[in-house]
Amino acid sequence: MELANKATRIRLFDFKSIQMRTFHMTWLAFHLCFFGWFGIAPLMAVVREDLNLDKSMVGSTIIASVAITVLVRLIIGPLCDKFGPRRTYTWLLVLGSLPVMAIGFADSFETFLMGRLAIGAIGASFVITQYHTSVMFGPNVVGTANATTAGWGNLGGGTTQIVMPLIFTAIVSLGVSETLGWRLAMVVPGMVLFATGIAYWFVTRDAPDGDYRELREQGLIPPAKAERGGWGTFKTAAADYRVWALFIVYAACFGVELTINNVAAIYFFDEFDLDLKTAGLIAGLFGLMNLFARTLGGFFSDLFARYRGLRGRVQFLFLALLVEGFALILFSQMTVLALAIASMILFSLFVQMSEGATFGLVPFMHKKALGAVAGIVGAGGNAGAVAAGFLFKSESLSYAQGLLFLGCAVVVCSFFALAVRFSPAVQAEEDSALRAAMAERKRDDEVSDAEPSPA
């Protein structure tokens, strides 16, 4: 669907316009979701001892944490098309907070596994984040907007690795045992998620001109029935091979990031004989690159589009993903801590740029099925994480060997990006829309320059 009054620039310190309020609320909500989603990951060394988990069991919990998200992401996209991102996000955050707090009741491998499985639904928040910024920003900046909100959200994967051990340590310092400490620590992100869900309802709305219910009543967008309950958009997206090519591409970038979020701390803990806090701090550097790396991916996607159109977005995605694969192979071979950290940061830069470049393409696939496209591509990330999880579940493979094989798989997957093509008519239409957005931005700049400065 086409929506009016999309923003043509990103004003980071604008907290009044609905576009920028939504921008800030989406990345913040997604950021906080990581505390619930992966809050237990940096505490796994303690959980492993408490629940007597072996490597295979730990691997199963890693797979569980991302497996359910595949299904929920496929569902959440059409729900955004039907009910709007505001309602969908609010309910996901409120309901998702419950298993985060409840995982503290786990007393066996089976109950812990089910807890991580239920918590994984929160990962669908990414789809809503990308959907919401896609309907708020124009074609000249939508790649940067999507990449920045997702990147600053993914930054939660890094801050979680750093903050959760500190929360755990603070609780234990009060005289609480480690066995009870990790359970109480998970209550904190659960409460934060619940509060964020309430805030999302009051701070945002579905589109620049109002909620979907209001816009449908005014006849400005098609009624929900015209979208066949939202599932018609899913069929449209699922019938396009290009969407599945991006599904594979996203499996090779975001799927890899999710995997590293799950294994990085325990990898450095085991391979380099570090303590829990130090391992978590180093693992956190991987996620902290999201502060700017994913934004760079979206920025270069927009930049390539200005000179080479949609074809330029595809070419940049291929290059970023190819370099990511080789950088991961390099990281897997490092045996010196300093070199391992340096190569991990290089790898992190390109994995996150690849993610930004992927969702620099998504808004241009099927505008009337935006939620469904975002859901399928987003689900690819979790499907990739599930597949990668089996590499780290096997007792016959070391973590380093698993990373090596994963890097080789990324190199192969990078070529799927080249399968994404657009017809000459679509390219011409988008080039025209891009020029119009740039012209509107130029007019805004001229108006701003002509306004007298305050005395």
Tell me about this structure.
It is built from 18 helices and no strands. It has helices at 18-37, 44-50, 55-83, 85-102, 109-119, 125-134, 142-173, 178-185, 187-203, 212-217, 231-238, 241-271, 276-288, 293-332, 337-361, 370-389, 399-413, 424-450. The N and C termini lie far apart (44 Å). The protein has a single domain (18-438), classed as Growth Hormone, Chain: A. The chain crosses the membrane at residues 25-45, 57-76, 88-106, 152-176, 182-203, 243-269, 281-304, 316-349, 369-391, 403-422.
Short summary:
Belongs to the major facilitator superfamily. Nitrate/nitrite porter (TC 2.A.1.8) family. This protein has 455 residues and is mainly alpha-helical. The chain has 18 helices and no strands.
Key terms:
455 residues; Growth Hormone, Chain: A; 0% strand; transmembrane
CATH class categorisation: Mainly Alpha
What does the average pLDDT come to?
Answer: 87
User: Pairing-aware structural class of the strands and helices?
Assistant: mainly alpha
Query: Radius of gyration, Cα only, in angstroms?
Result: 22 Å
- Sheet-strand content, in percent, reads under 5%
Sequence stretches where pLDDT stays below 50 over 5 or more residues: none
Note the main sheet: none
Task: Report the principal-axis shape.
Answer: globular
Distance between the termini: 44 Å
The structural domain count equals 1
Instruction: Quickly give the CATH architecture.
Output: Up-down Bundle
Kindly report the CATH topology.
Growth Hormone, Chain: A
Individual helix count:
18
Order of helices and strands: HHHHHHHHHHHHHHHHHH
Amount of helix: over 70%
- The CATH superfamily turns out to be MFS general substrate transporter like domains
Find the count of extended strands (DSSP E, 2+ residues).
0
Oligomer: single chain
Domain Major facilitator superfamily (MFS) profile: 22-425
Transmembrane segments: 25-45, 57-76, 88-106, 152-176, 182-203, 243-269, 281-304, 316-349, 369-391, 403-422
Family: Belongs to the major facilitator superfamily. Nitrate/nitrite porter (TC 2.A.1.8) family.
Membrane topology: Multi-pass membrane protein
